């Protein structure tokens, strides 16, 4: 059994056609799992729907608390890319003994050009086979939490030497 | 380094608008990797573009030969779902010591409702972390080659007890 | 008030993932109107769901009967492209005094690469402003029923000189 | 012969994945015409790429000047929805004797849920058959420039009584 915690991020941004801007509604994760015909046994739980630039330690503590107390030992966290690595470090310090994979998207799922479905398929797969630890799964690759950074100029995640 | 062998299947079917039917053109795999912003180092090689119901031992021998002789030890094979399990068994008998993951799609990538991008993200992830062996990766799950069958009535892959 | 008669054709073909082939289910027209945020007052009525190559005079008589007896004087007929011109001619002979626009698609709406939504927006617009007569609306253009043919080699509709 | 003037608006907004926000790049109109298999003879000319809330009389004068001086007598203008009606009124006062249709989208074309392709098919069709005048074509409907307003609360265009 697996748990997916939703926290928002680009992944889940949608277009608010009344106000003409990006915003958050319900998460797209269940729809994406249906599209992927996912047969993975899992529970999706939305913790918050925020831009990761607005994430503070208050939100991180909530993510930590839910990751620690849930029964599942394999967890995917969807997260904005800008502070994904910070949250990964926070989880690594506070939630030992579980396999936690953070993922997200560079382009909202609601856009035709989104990498979201690819990343979700990737994260769900890594989390099933990696040993306990905290990882970032983006661009088809996984990184240990302390071996990765987001290169904001290029919009990619890259390994720290 | 990873290699992706393309063999066709639903995954890569496209719509021939002149003749009004499904057919094969070039593979969509490179376009899908671009969409997924994949940063995985890999080479894509098209071996054939056929419906897996038309696959005979001649084609399977070709897949085996290329999997055995290529330098990469981690290989993804895109394949039609109908005989994916047969080809997996064939590979298991003839290509020891490599991690080979077969994947495909229930709906062509060119359709809006395709599971292809999710499955490709999944297969590329499993192949990077699983030990040597031959696996089928569909629906977010991986199966050892001798522990899976396609349930044609439901259109899903399921574990053999 | 406007009426849309659905007869099938490429426009409405969908992918049957159990059998791995194109088939017909329910029409996509209501979903397409929702996507287009259509505010046109209209009623959608499915007359049949068939490939237009299989259309005989029995089906054409049914289309004629419904076009003649419905109260609306402005009608869109969705239709397979292969015999769209034949049905247009049949309607022109049997349903005087109404504006009837036939449209369809070269690629099923369910495909990302479909021209269906463009053609539906076009046909609904032409039908609101053209004088009584029977027309084909494809590729952003309208043709009087006796001034058009489908060029099957190129997959386009073109004016007869 | 027809001319399409592009001015930006929601229609053409794209997602800037480096900065995580909506922005403008090149217009999507040529790609949309290709998708619609448009056979309409036309020239696309980008005048500006701006949000219509930022449009001032300086930009409107430029649109007027190009509409007046171009040889075509049938013109489509793509435009943000928020001030589409103001620009329509401006054109009506300054460009007599031509058929000008303004259109746009409630959701960017780059989103899967966009009404853009439907509206473009509609606008291109109305402009070919309506008499000289300035019109707004949205939601499958056309309105004379002085008989329409945008209902911002509902996100629709509606007829003025």
Written description of the protein model:
Four copies of one chain form a homotetramer. Chain A is globular. The model of chain A has no long low-confidence stretch (mean pLDDT 96). In chain A, 28% of the residues lie in helices and 32% in strands. Chain A is an alpha/beta fold. The first copy, chain A, has helices at 29-35, 57-69, 84-94, 116-129; strands at 2-8, 13-16, 21-24, 42-50, 74-78, 99-103, 133-138, 141-144, 148-151, 156-159.
Strand content of chain A: 25-35%
Major sheet of chain A: size, sense and barrel closure? Answer: 6 strands, mixed
What's the arrangement of strands in the largest beta sheet of chain A? 4-1-5-6-7-8
Secondary-structure class of chain A:
alpha/beta
Low-confidence stretches of chain A: none
Overall strand count of chain A: 10
Element pattern of chain A in H and E: EEEHEHEHEHEEEE
SS element count, helices of chain A:
4
The chain pair forming the largest interface, with residue counts per chain, is: A-B, 35 and 35 residues
* Radius of gyration over C-alpha positions of chain A, nearest whole angstrom: 14 Å
Oligomer: homotetramer
CA-based shape of chain A: globular
Give the termini distance of chain A in whole angstroms: 34 Å
The overall pLDDT of chain A, averaged over residues, is 96
Instruction: Tell me roughly what share of residues is in helical segments of chain A.
Output: 25-40%
